[in-house]
Each structure stands twice: as C-alpha cells, then as structure tokens.
Hints:
Layout: E1 3-7, H1 15-24, E2 29-32, E3 34-35, E4 38-39, H2 45-58, E5 61-69, H3 77-96, E6 101-104, H4 113-134, E7 137-141, H5 151-161, E8 166-170, H6 172-177, H7 182-190, E9 194-199, E10 201-205, E11 210-214, H8 223-232, E12 238-241, H9 251-268
Amino acid sequence: MFKLGVITDEISSDIGKALNVARSLDLECIELREGWARNIKDFGDVDLRRVRRIAESAGLEVVCISSPLFKCNVNDERTVKEHLRFLRRVTEIAKFLDAEFVRGFAFWKIGSVDQHWTMIIERINEAVDICVSEGVILALENEHATFVGMGKEAYQLAKAVDSRSFNILWDPGNAFAAREKPFPDGYLHVRDRMVHMHIKDATLDSSTGKSRFVAVGKGEIDYRGQLGSLVEDRYPGCVSIETHYRVRDDGEKSTRETYEGIVEILKELNLR
C-alpha cells in the first residue's frame, strides 16, 4: 500500500502547524516546498535543523524537496545557470533531511517543444549529473504550463534522458489541465518511471474553458481507478496531497476536505 502525505505549505506556511495537522490526519510523509515565508531552496542550516527536529517529533518522513528547478525559460542562459547553482544547495537539503527526491520541471512552454527539444534534454542532463554526483533522484513533475504537461510527454523525456537518477513525479491534476485524460491514459505512460505522486482533483469550468481545482472526489479525474491501480501495481511510494484550492482561504480546511475525499475512495475500494 502506498503512503499518504502532504505538501506542507498547502496547509500553512508555518511548518510546525502544518506538521501538527499532518500528524492529526495520520499521514506518513511530507513534501517541502515553502515554509516560514521562504522557498525551501533558501533555507539555512538553522531552518533545516528546526525542520528535522519537528518532523522527527511528529514521526513524519520527508520524502521530497520540491524545488522550483527549471521553472524558467530554457533559452535564458543566465537563469538556467542560477537554477543549476541552487540545485546543489537543494541536493544538500535533501540529504540532510534524508529525502530521496528533488522535484524539477521542464521549462516554461514558449514556442514548440520540437524547436527546443535538444536544448531541454541538454539542460536536464546537466541537472541529472549534479543529482547523480550527490546521490539523489531528480523527479520531473508534469506541469501544464511547461513543455511537459502530460504523462505521455513525461515518459518521452524520461526515455530521452535515460538515467536511473531521473524519474517522474506524476501529477494527474496537472495532466488534466494539459487536456490529457489522467487515468488511465496518462498513468499508463508514467507508471514504470513514477517515483512520487501529487493528488488534487479538477473539473473543467464551462464558462472559462479552463480547469478548476476541487476536493478529491468532486472533480472529473478517475481517482478510484488511479488509486486502485497504485495498489495493483504495488507502488510503494508516497502520494502527496496538494489541494490547490482554498475553503474560505483556509489551507487546513481545504486539506482536510481533500483528505476526507481520499479516505472515502479508499473505503469504497476496501483499502482503508
């Protein structure tokens, strides 16, 4: 059975509060992206010792450091170099917190992917080389605003890079926003290279033609099929709650509502 976790800042920027909520929900793992009004890449050693102490006290495993790596233009040489520099710090953070994965992206979508494909692979390989040298795995998140929004595209890039230190962070909600059917279509592409997963639901807003995030179980993504397949496929990793919406601008309430939706699905599947 997979583990259930949460991206802490979806609950609160206060990591202590976020972990108290996570513990109250009997979650097993956490993912760090921001905290105390700073991005995780900018945390100092004192911050990291504080995080580790709180996580250990709560009995929660840090599984992923969700950096903003390559949320930039692929042809912006100066910014790409800046991202590669902070990646080294992010790998240090991952090792200090015993996190196996560092999250990254495949650059903002500008023009056609064919036009930039060779450069995308070159840049990703530079990042993978850093991760290999530091003993961590770079997990590519499919994000609809980047060149890789769908599961199919994530698999194509993973195949092109071809490194055991480069795998996929599967996000069905982002695939939905990219106009891919997350399950089964997208999942079937990524499942053999998936090392981590985000869970958020979405629906298509008929008035805007854009996707809108909602609590799990209230959207159009087939999470009954998705979660059932994770068990059938013996996926051993973590599924991180990432609500991406707010109940009265309250991250804790939004997370609890999404958690309840997940639990309801698991009960229907006789998995909880």
